[in-house]
């Protein structure tokens, strides 16, 4: 089965610091996504990325967030100035083949202190 | 806007018993429906999906789900639960537009008693 990888598995940071979460999606997929899951809550869509640009973003994805795919393989999510409420599990996903199925990475647990 | 409701937050069954996890969705067009499973500390694994065609879909690990348009439901079933099935289960509806983003339910935590 295709695999999406994410690094780091756990990131601890101080409030106000910048973090970059990394994902290596499946190379021949077309759409890339970030989702997050606050502890005990449901998985929420953050942003989708297609053809090297954001195709859709949710209300959560404000100016503090950005995504890029700088080298055609890594897909990153940057949070410029983290807040306590950014603490969550962040999942990367890749899709676009085989009828909209998305493959999820194992997630990065972000803890903001 | 699309939405998913999983009415049961937590279900406990005995090993060997049958299982049904409920999922109701709201979506304006023909939905793309998914069930994912998440074990503790793990990512999301796709169990099965419905795009079109036969409304009874088979998935991995012996799971199946039935799409019922009249009830806006996509319930997940398994005839005999194994202890290793203990996990959290998420139903999701996919945006059939250009982005295919997923909207998830809040999940159902399954506990399996020996």
Unreliable stretches of chain A: none
Number of helices of chain B: 0
- Estimate the mean pLDDT confidence of chain B: 91
Largest sheet of chain A, if any?
7 strands, mixed
Quaternary form: heterodimer
Q: Helices and strands of chain A: which structural class?
A: mainly beta
* Strand proportion of chain A: over 45%
- What's the helix-strand series of chain A? EEEEEEEEEEE
Structural class label of chain B: mainly beta
Helix content of chain B: under 10%
Q: If you average the pLDDT of chain A, what whole number results?
A: 90
Kindly, what is the distance between the CA atoms of the first and last residues of chain B, rounded to a whole number of angstroms?
41 Å
Please describe the biggest sheet of chain B, giving its number of strands, its sense, and whether it closes into a barrel. 6 strands, mixed
Low-confidence stretches of chain B: none
Number of strands of chain B: 12
How many β-strand stretches of chain A? 11
What is this entry, summarized?
With 113 residues, chain A is an all-beta fold.
Topology overview:
The complex is a heterodimer of chains A (113) and B (114).
Chain A: E1 5-7, E2 10-13, E3 19-24, E4 31-37, E5 43-50, E6 53-57, E7 65-68, E8 75-79, E9 88-95, E10 102-104, E11 108-112
Parallel strand pairs in A: 2-11
Antiparallel strand pairs in A: 1-3, 3-8, 4-5, 4-9, 5-6, 7-8, 9-10, 9-11
Chain B: E1 3-5, E2 10-14, E3 19-21, E4 24-26, E5 32-38, E6 44-50, E7 56-58, E8 64-68, E9 73-78, E10 87-94, E11 102-104, E12 108-113
Parallel strand pairs in B: 2-12
Antiparallel strand pairs in B: 1-4, 3-9, 5-6, 5-10, 7-8, 8-9, 10-11, 10-12
């Amino acid at each position: 089965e295709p695999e999406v990888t994410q690094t780091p598995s756990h990131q601890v940071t101080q409030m106000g610091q910048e973090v970059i979460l990394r994902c290596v999606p499946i190379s021949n997929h077309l759409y890339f996504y970030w989702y997050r899951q606050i502890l005990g809550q449901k998985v929420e869509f953050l942003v989708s990325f297609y053809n090297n640009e954001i195709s859709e973003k949710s209300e959560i994805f404000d100016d503090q967030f950005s995504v890029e795919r700088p080298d055609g393989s890594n897909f990153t999510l940057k949070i410029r100035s983290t807040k306590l409420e950014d603490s969550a599990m962040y999942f990367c996903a890749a899709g676009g083949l085989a009828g909209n199925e998305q493959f999820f990475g194992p997630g990065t647990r972000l803890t903001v202190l | 806007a699309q939405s998913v409701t999983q009415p049961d937050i937590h279900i406990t069954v005995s090993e060997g018993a049958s299982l049904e996890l409920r999922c109701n969705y709201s979506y304006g067009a023909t939905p793309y429906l998914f069930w994912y499973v998440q074990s503790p500390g793990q990512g999301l694994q796709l169990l099965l999906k419905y795009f079109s065609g036969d409304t009874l879909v088979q998935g991995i690990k012996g799971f199946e789900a039935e799409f019922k348009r009249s009830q806006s439901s996509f319930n997940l079933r398994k005839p005999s639960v194994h202890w290793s099935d203990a996990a959290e289960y998420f139903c999701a509806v996919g945006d059939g537009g250009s982005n295919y983003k997923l909207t998830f339910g809040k999940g159902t935590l399954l506990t399996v008693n020996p």
